[in-house]
Design a protein that fits this description.
Layout: E1 7-12, H1 17-28, E2 32-39, H2 46-49, E3 55-61, H3 71-80, H4 82-93, E4 99-104, H5 108-116, E5 122-126, H6 130-133, H7 137-142, H8 147-159, E6 162-165, H9 177-180, E7 190-192, H10 210-214, E8 218-225, H11 235-245, E9 249-256, H12 261-271, E10 281-284, H13 289-296, E11 301-304, H14 326-333, E12 337-339, H15 344-353, E13 356-358, H16 365-373, H17 377-390, H18 397-408
Parallel strand pairs: 1-2, 1-4, 2-3, 4-5, 5-6, 6-7, 8-9, 8-11, 9-10, 11-12, 12-13
Helix pairs in contact: 5-8, 13-14
């Protein structure tokens, strides 16, 4: 008699590429993978994610900030979506997972899942840790983080069965008591798992770069876009402004997780309205996860920027120990990185493989341009080939599965 596959559920507000990579490796290793989403996916089509998941269940909710102002809209939405809510709930109750992996933010769906399904091992994956990213509770609330969300983050840290975090191994040391409260007791079972490259995304080095045609430097920035855009004070805009003023090209590709491409292009065009007439600024339509890697391979450098300037002393206290999937995407595309000096963990990786350069002072971008003109680009490309083969998620699959099996023993 054929044994049933072990079923692993991934809970997310919307689908994320790092989770796709993790789930696909598990699926190829003989596990049954299930994706449960809170919000309606209007970005990358589900046909792409079905390569990694045996089943996709979505509540198909729309993204609204939870506050009194939006209360009537939220109630109306829930009534309109009652059919999809009941359907998703019915499908979830049929599942028999050996464990659940919950990706935050937001944290409240993870906390609620742990409460409702307390008998099923729950692994908490705080993709973006609020209690590190903000300097104080006052600033966090100013940017829309609610008190109940901070309480949910603390609950997950203390009550999950296991924890995955994707930044520096020591990043959890910098969780602020001011945001989550004193005497925080984070669960001891943890896995440090970075946003690695994946073999299926890696493309050959591009030998027909734009810079060969116009003899100018071309940089690219890729990243997710929220429902409200960057905002005027976002430091990404300030850096891009200085770069194009120095005579280097910047190409921007954004993606939305909860908005269709037309809406995200409208928001992005508004954010970058001051640059649209510059011959050095180029705004592009959103592309899929595999298409974007091939597309950006034609540029010279990938930008790793920060929305808020990190302190020169101890930047790890405000997110300098973090790492996102951009780093892997640039390596998969075969291009070196230009990174903010405050991103010290990324800087360590760049120096280890010799595939990147610190951005430097925002007012001295001209110095960066002169330095880039003198580098041996072919030598860096050779380093990239070695780096992306070493920085592969496939090489870390065994310890990932080992961690999962230890968590599943509880069930």
């Amino acid at each position: 008699m054929k044994r049933a596959k072990k079923q692993i559920v991934f809970l997310e507000p919307w689908p994320e590429i790092m989770i796709y990579k993790m789930a696909k490796l598990l699926k190829e290793s003989g596990y049954e993978t299930i994706s449960i989403r809170i919000l309606e996916n209007k970005g990358v089509p589900d046909s792409f994610f079905r390569e990694a998941f045996d089943k996709i269940i979505s509540f198909e909710l729309s993204a609204y900030k939870i506050n009194l102002k939006n209360l009537s809209l939220i109630v109306k939405l829930l009534l309109e979506k009652i059919s999809s809510l009941l359907k998703a709930t019915k499908e979830i109750l049929k599942l028999s997972p050996c464990l659940i992996i919950g990706r935050a933010t937001p944290n409240w769906p993870c906390a609620l899942t742990k409460i409702l399904f307390k008998k099923i091992p729950f692994i908490y994956f705080p993709y973006d840790i609020r209690a590190i990213g903000w300097e104080s509770k006052e600033i966090a609330k100013k940017h829309g983080t609610k008190e109940f969300e901070l309480k949910a983050e603390r609950f997950c840290f203390e009550n999950c069965d296991g924890l995955i975090h994707k930044g520096h191994p020591d990043e959890l040391k910098y969780i602020k008591e001011e945001l989550l409260g004193e005497n925080l007791k984070i669960v001891p079972k943890r896995l440090n798992f970075n946003p690695y490259c994946s073999r299926e995304f890696i493309v050959p080095l591009n030998k027909n770069k734009l810079s060969k045609k116009d003899k100018e430097i071309h940089m690219v920035y890729i990243g997710s876009m929220g429902t409200v855009g960057f905002g005027e004070e976002n430091y990404i805009l300030k850096y891009i402004s200085k770069i194009i003023e120095s005579g280097m090209h910047v190409h921007v590709y954004t993606k939305s997780n909860t908005l269709p491409s037309k809406e995200i292009m409208k928001i992005t065009s508004n954010d970058f309205s001051n640059f649209l007439n510059s011959k050095y600024f180029h705004l592009h339509e959103p592309l899929g996860p595999k298409e974007i890697v091939k597309e950006i391979s034609q540029y010279d450098y990938g930008l790793l920027l920060v929305s808020v300037p990190l302190p020169k002393e101890h930047p790890e206290r405000l997110g300098g120990y973090g790492m996102g999937n951009k780093n892997a995407s640039y390596l998969e595309a075969g291009i070196p990185c230009i990174y903010d000096d405050g991103l010290i963990f990324i800087g360590q990786l760049m120096k280890k493989y010799r595939v990147g350069f610190p951005l430097g002072d925002i007012n001295k971008i001209y110095d960066l341009k002169n330095k880039l003109k003198k580098i041996n680009y072919e030598a860096i490309e050779k380093n990239i080939i070695l780096a992306r083969q070493d920085f592969l998620m496939e090489k870390h699959l065994d310890r990932f599965i080992e961690f999962i099996l230890k968590m599943a023993e509880k069930n």
